[in-house]
Design a protein that fits this description.
8 strands, alpha+beta, about 30% strand, about 170 residues, 8-stranded antiparallel sheet, about 25% helix, globular
């Protein structure tokens, strides 16, 4: 889709580089787990704004979207000196929900640091109840989803959490 910069390796929508800030670093010298989610959220805001899902959308249309569920995998440490980018793929959607996959990658070296699979629901802010996406937003989401539909499912989608035992 022309609304987005696309990652040359994956073809997925990708954010501009994002800085790791000092407040994100914990006593282990790397990004704290909560700030990985914060980086995913900031990236999501950047990309969703391009299809009309932004603060202005909430203010003008009195609608928003809320997180229902998320699963984060932490694969490689990020430190203060690193910059990251977030790649996003829409895995599925219906009139009220979006199921999406995000990858946090090192902005300069390209290695994968973390993934987050999430489902969000569209909400009427006056009633605080689920509501269908407006037609214009649904059309953009559908086009985005169609652009990614032929790609193989990313490793880790739908993964169940648990301790893996050997033989």
């Amino acid at each position: 889709m022309s609304l987005f910069d696309l990652c040359p390796d994956t073809g997925l929508a990708i954010t501009p580089p994002m800085a790791v800030r000092p407040e994100m670093i914990d006593y282990n010298g790397h990004v704290n787990v909560a700030f990985y989610v914060k980086l995913f959220d900031e990236g999501l805001d950047i990309l969703f704004e391009r299809i009309g899902l932004s603060r202005a959308y909430v203010e003008t249309r009195q609608m928003s979207f809320f997180a229902l569920e998320a699963h984060v995998r932490y694969l490689r440490e990020i430190s203060l000196a690193d910059r990251v980018r977030m790649r996003l793929r829409i895995l599925d959607l219906d009139p009220k929900r979006i199921h999406y996959w995000m990858e946090l990658v090192h902005a300069d070296e390209g290695w994968l640091s973390a993934t987050m699979e999430s489902i969000s629901i569209h909400v009427d802010m006056a009633s605080r109840r689920p509501a269908p996406f407006p037609d214009d937003i649904m059309a953009r989401l559908t086009a985005w989803h169609a652009a990614d539909a032929e790609r193989p499912r990313p490793e880790g989608v739908g993964q169940v959490i648990g301790i893996r035992r050997k033989g």
